[in-house]
Amino acid sequence: MKRGVLLVNLGSPDSPEPKDVKKYLGEFLMDERVIDIPYAARALLVRGIILKTRPKASAAAYKKIWWEEGSPLIVISERLQNKIQKQVDIPVGLAMRYGSMTIEKGLQELVDKGVEEVLLFPLYPQFAMATTETILVKAEELRDMHFPNLKLESVPAFYNKADYIEVLSNSIKLHLEGKNQEHLLFSYHGVPERHIRKSDITKSHCKIDRSCCATPSKAHEFCYRHQCLEVTRLVAEKLQLGEGTYSTSFQSRLGFDPWLQPYTDRTIERLGKEGVKNMAIVTPAFVSDCLETLEEIAMEGQEIFHEMGGNDFTTIPCLNDDDDFVNLLSNWITQWHKK
Ligand SMILES: C=CC1=C(C)c2cc3[nH]c(cc4nc(cc5[nH]c(cc1n2)c(C)c5CCC(=O)O)C(CCC(=O)O)=C4C)c(C)c3C=C
Ligand SMILES: [Fe+2]
Ligand SMILES: [Fe+2]
């Protein structure tokens, strides 16, 4: 069987104009795995409330980070794809879960190259229903509708793979050289707490308390919170970070439901108030820099820190198309191809 790979990331609007942002947010937020409430309530919330105001504000934020070549997330994902393609012998496609670079087009391009078996590669280190799961479900739906003979496999969450932790830790170390930060904050994209309970395959383990994510359980294969806390723990171990010099928080909450805590903006505020003058922040839920890292963290986060009296605020870039990350993903793809 001829094999190929489809890298899949989240997606971005076609442009930072409010009409394109509205179209993109409409598709994204109407996904039942992102806003997981019944269809009628979701439509009312998204089309009746969120899309009336958010596109203008989001478009203004996108304008601040947009590159000449396009959305950073898309441009970086394309660079990653091109570099991986140079290292592996099978076709490597790229698609986005939302927006114009659809998974359907990505699968079609691979099929046109004669591919009969596709390795779906969600570009997320941690599993979440709003990211990995929605990609896999969408790809299966498309296969059943348009490509009935195509075989699909997928790469599981890679948050705890030793070689990934090594590449991430080395990148953090490199970007912190000579920085002397007092605190390193690991900020992950948040999700509503309800998502964690829904993904708990044991239906009883996840209590979102101090101990559940540290107590071994089958639930952890699909527990976003456990997987984020593990990345922090493993990197801290590798870099020998001292107790109290690092912590974990969750960013980008939307709406009024409780999301995973502590929240990043409040944590930055607290650190500044406590007298921390020099902090750094890393965002390991994202493999590519995007709106949430370039604007929410590097711009807004920095502003909060300075307002609270902080001085140096270092934002560590995502792994993007760094050579070590390219080598890592290419190795995994080659291993799969040879199996
Ligand atoms: C209920 C809403 C949302 C959930 C749940 C959610 C989960 C989630 N998202 C990412 C990664 C990204 N999200 C990005 C932008 C973004 N996310 C939401 C909402 C939810 N995300 C919104 C409304 C937006 C758009 C921007 C805004 O209006 O604030 C991005 C950036 C995209 C870009 O174009 O740069 C990424 C990446 C993860 C990993 C995740 C769950 C783990
Ligand atoms: Fe998001
Ligand atoms: Fe847990």
From TrEMBL:
The keyword Cell wall biogenesis/degradation does not apply. It catalyses: Fe-coproporphyrin III + 2 H(+) = coproporphyrin III + Fe(2+); heme b + 2 H(+) = protoporphyrin IX + Fe(2+). One of its GO terms (cellular component) is cytoplasm. Its main location: cytoplasm. Pathway: Porphyrin-containing compound metabolism; protoheme biosynthesis; protoheme from protoporphyrin-IX: step 1/1. Keywords: Cytoplasm, Heme biosynthesis, Iron, Lyase, Metal-binding, Porphyrin biosynthesis. Its EC number is 4.98.1.1. One of its GO terms (biological process) is heme biosynthetic process. It holds the Pfam family Ferrochelatase. It is an enzyme of class 4 (lyase). The keyword Lyase applies. Fe(2+) binds at H189, E292. Transmembrane segments: none annotated. InterPro entries: Ferrochelatase, Ferrochelatase_C, Ferrochelatase_N. Gene3D superfamilies: 3.40.50.1400. Signal peptide: none annotated. It comes from the Bacteria. GO terms for molecular function: ferrochelatase activity; metal ion binding. It is found in: Cytoplasm. Catalyzes the ferrous insertion into protoporphyrin IX. Belongs to the ferrochelatase family. This is Ferrochelatase. The lineage of its organism: Bacteria, Pseudomonadati, Bacteroidota, Flavobacteriia, Flavobacteriales.
